[in-house]
């Protein structure tokens, strides 16, 4: 029999620590990210829509008008209209989904093994139209304030456009990363997709508005 190696160090992990680590792993693996889907979708999409829509709108106005007042007023008008539109649209959409799920539950009404009504148990998982509408409107407003704040205090035209693009890019990275982490999806794949989409929206809006302005269209 070989003699034990005096330089060999054996690390003993307490059994309760191993069990705790295993439980944490199982909880993380079994966590249902779909439970966050409704409000997360409304919040993240609302923020991205507010950010990209208002930034593109301001860039479009900035393509034909160099004063900051026109850009900022246009941005605020878009914020008010967009927030109301997002809230109403989300409310109607989620309420329709709620009606469909309730009708389906009534058709499949049954009793579980422990005597509780399955319908009552499922109602706790149903989407909340008011919650989705408020989350969407607030998130849209939050995203819209990024380009507004970036443009409000800069007088130089070219610098203002550059600052708006830079601020929107950073916000897109942040929103994309938060949405990916909370949704359990890869950040490296989500962020570039969100950023490129925002750049395209701003560039297309700026270019087409510039083209219309240079074509002699009277306002």
From TrEMBL:
Keywords carried by this UniProt record: Ion transport, Iron, Iron transport, Membrane, Transmembrane, Transmembrane helix, Transport, Vacuole
Entries under InterPro entries matching the protein: Ccc1_fam
The keyword Lipid biosynthesis is annotated on this UniProt entry: no
GO cellular component terms attached to this protein's record: vacuolar membrane
Main location: membrane
Record has Nucleus as a keyword: no
Superkingdom of the organism of origin: Eukaryota
GO MF term list: iron ion sequestering activity; iron ion transmembrane transporter activity
TM regions (residue ranges): 39-64, 71-89, 130-154, 161-182, 194-213
Entry membrane topology: Multi-pass membrane protein
Catalyzed reaction equations: Fe(2+)(in) = Fe(2+)(out)
Signal sequence residues: none
Cellular location(s): Vacuole membrane
Function (record text): Vacuolar Fe(2+) uptake transporter.
Family label: Belongs to the CCC1 family.
Protein name: Vacuolar iron transporter
Organism of derivation: Forsythia ovata
């Amino acid at each position: 029999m070989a003699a034990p190696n005096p330089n060999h160090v054996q690390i003993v992990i307490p059994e309760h620590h191993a069990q705790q680590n295993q439980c944490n792993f199982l909880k993380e693996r079994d966590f249902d990210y779909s439970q966050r889907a409704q409000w997360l979708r409304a919040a993240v999409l609302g923020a991205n829509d507010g950010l990209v829509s208002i930034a593109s709108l301001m860039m479009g106005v900035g393509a034909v008008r160099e004063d900051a007042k026109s850009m900022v007023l246009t941005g605020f008008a878009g914020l008010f209209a967009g927030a109301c539109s997002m809230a109403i649209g989300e409310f109607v959409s989620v309420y329709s989904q709620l009606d469909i799920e309730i009708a389906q539950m009534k058709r499949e009404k049954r009793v579980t093994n422990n005597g509780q009504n399955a319908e009552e148990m499922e109602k706790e998982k149903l989407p909340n139209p008011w919650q989705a509408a408020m989350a969407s409107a607030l998130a849209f407003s939050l995203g819209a304030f990024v380009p507004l704040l970036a443009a409000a205090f800069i007088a130089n035209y070219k610098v203002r456009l550059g600052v708006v693009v830079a601020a929107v890019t950073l916000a897109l990275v942040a929103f994309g990363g938060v949405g990916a982490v909370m949704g359990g999806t890869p950040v490296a794949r989500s962020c570039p997709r969100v950023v490129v989409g925002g750049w395209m929206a701003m560039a297309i809006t700026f270019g087409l508005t510039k083209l219309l302005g240079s074509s002699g269209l009277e306002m």
